[in-house]
Structure formats: structure tokens, C-alpha cells
Amino acid sequence: MQKDPHISIGVVAKRTGVAVSAIRFYESIGLLPAIRGPGGRRLFARSVIRRVSFILISQQMGYTLEEIATLLDGLPQQRTPNKADWQKLSREFSADIDQRIAQLTRMKESLSSCIGCGCLSLKTCKLYNPGDNAAQQGAGPRYLLGGSPEVKQ
Amino acid sequence: MQKDPHISIGVVAKRTGVAVSAIRFYESIGLLPAIRGPGGRRLFARSVIRRVSFILISQQMGYTLEEIATLLDGLPQQRTPNKADWQKLSREFSADIDQRIAQLTRMKESLSSCIGCGCLSLKTCKLYNPGDNAAQQGAGPRYLLGGSPEVKQ
DNA sequence: ATAAAAGCTAAAGTTAACTTTAGGTCAATA
DNA sequence: TATTGACCTAAAGTTAACTTTAGCTTTTAT
User: From the alpha carbon of A14, which nucleotide's C1' atom is closest?
Assistant: First the structure.
């Protein structure tokens, strides 16, 4: 008899550092696959540890669980993800990290050229008006940050 | 008679692109200073527009409103913040952006050397065990991410 | 054999950051 | 002057991501 390939929720928790209640929650929203053993207990494949790690790292990157679920949909459901599967996800991630770094770099530049310069004229401020067209629309900082200027009430 | 140096909540909203209800909320938690005009309406100094911009940008950086409040405490309460005041905040910010960039860079390296490599052995994975000592403690990814391995239930 | 440890479910609670709703006041305009 | 638009307050609602509570069952260890 060889050892059971499945692990209990407690083991997943211990191995990942995530609370049992969180693992249970992840399973409940379909983020982690589990089968049930006799007595109704959750049984996880060992690969969920890697999956949980991926979730944690993605969260650190600012992804929501919903987005993470979409990312993980790229992994095969039928078989245990292999090297190539994880590499594919990894490449997508790397590209995303690069984008974030670029965004932060832009933000730093804007910061020193606007708030940093101490200019008090909003009309000439790059941070407020990244493109000159923004000024016409009377847009605020949100405009720079990707949102469209729409005011409610 | 010269023009009133104060602006209404609607103007603040329009200039910043932030909803009126949000401005009201910010004032309610002490993030934005306001006095009351006849009839009980909020009157803001023009400098709150800059303050709101700072809040938005900080939020983008991942700061909570509580942290932002602390940052803004560095600004003078008695007078309108001047060039030097904003420059000081800006410098602190730049340093923070640098740190975040460094963190992302580290993450990218870990990613390609661990998940990217497709290794399935958790024991030798850098991402799981940034320092070799982590392995002894049976720590999960949380460990890498700054948390201490503590499992409840 | 029995007691403690680990698990289970369902439902309610928590925090952040706001928005929505309801009901009323004040002020600029046709 | 009448009405519309801007504002006000207080309280409840919203979403994400979990945690806590309560009460019960199943394993595992002594």
C-alpha cells in the first residue's frame, strides 16, 4: 500500500501559513479543488500548496481573488499542473511586474516634476494634466490615474 | 471686495474628480479640513485640492487612508502648505517608490527562479524558502511575504 | 474506552472605504 | 415668487476577503 496522495486541510494550512478558515473559504469559492473523504472531510491534492502560494503572491501583487481565479483557469483541471503550465503563468506574471515597475517609475517622475517642484498652479501641473487635453475637461488627478472624470450627485 | 478664498464641496469634487460623498467622508474622518459657512455648508481652502490629489496618488501606491492621514500630519496645520512642505513629502514618497520597485524586482527574480523553473520540490524552492532557515520552521509562502508563520484553529 | 484534537456547516461579524437613501434646508435663477 | 439645484445629516447598505461563533461529528491518541 502506497501513501495517500491527498492531504488534509490542516496540512495545507500548515504548509502555506494560511489559516484553516481561509483555505475553507478558498475552496468554497472554487479557488481550490477538493474531494471529500469518508466522514465528509476535505482532501486536497498536494499541488494545492503551490496553488495557494500562487494566490498569496498574486494578492501581494494587488490582484483580487476574482482575477486570480481567472488566472488559475489557465491551469489544467484534469491533471496536476506541470513545469510548462507554471512557466506559462510565470511569464504572464513577469510581464505584469514589468508594467507595474514602469508605472511606478512614471509616478516617481511625475512626483518630482509636480508636487516635488512645489508649483502651486494646477493648470501647468503634469500630475494633474498628463496630456494638455485633460485641462480642457477640467479633470482632476483621477484622470492621470486611469479613471475617467465623472462626478456623481 | 476681493473674491472669497474658499471653495464649496462641489467645486472640490469637480476639480479633483472625486465624488461629493467621498469628500464629505474625508472631511468626516479628519482627512480634509473645512470650516462652515452660514447655513452650515462646508467651505474649503483651495489647498485641499492638492491635498485630495495627494490622497489619490497615495492610495494608488497602496497606502490606507489611516497611513495617509499620518503622512499628511507632516504638513503644517496653521498655514497653507508651501513648496518646501510638499517637497519634503515628495522626498519621502520617492524613497517609498524606490522600495516598491526593489520589491517587485526581487519578486520577479524569485518567480523566474522558482515557479518559472517548474521545480516541484518545495524544499529547494527559493520562493518558499527565501532563507534556508525557513525550511526548518516549515514555513509557507507567507514567510517570504513578510508574515510570520502562525496558524490558527 | 474515552477524551482531546481536528473537521464540518451555516450564519453572523469585521474592516476599509465609500455610496445610497431618506428627509430636510438654503440659495441662485426664471 | 416659485422652483430647481446644491448642500446638509444620520443611518443603513455594499464589496472584498476573511474570521468568529455555535453546535455537532469524526479521528486519533492514551
Answer: C6
